[in-house]
Amino acid sequence: MEHVSLDHLYSSTSRKAQPSAIREICKLIDKPNMKSLAGGWPDPEVFPGTEIAGLISNLMDQNADLALQYGTTEGLLKLRRELCKLVDENYNIKCSTDQILITHGSAQGMDLICRVILDPDEAVVVGLPSYFGAFGTVKASRGQVIGVPVDHNGMNIANLKTTLDETAKQGTRVKAVYVIPNFQNPSGATLSMKRRKEIIKIADSNDLLIIEDDPYGDLRFEGKDLPPLISMDNSGRVIHLRSFSKTFSPGMRLGYVIGQEKIIRQMVVAKQFVDCATNTLSQYILLEFIQNGLLDKRIKSNIEYYKKKRDHMLAQLQKHFPSNVKWNKPSGGFFIFIHLPESMDASELLTDAVKHNVAFVAGQPFFADGSGKNTFRLSFSQASIDDIESAIEKLGLLIKEKLSK
Question: Domain spanning 7-48+296-404: which superfamily?
Answer without folding.
Answer: Aspartate Aminotransferase, domain 1 (3.90.1150.10)
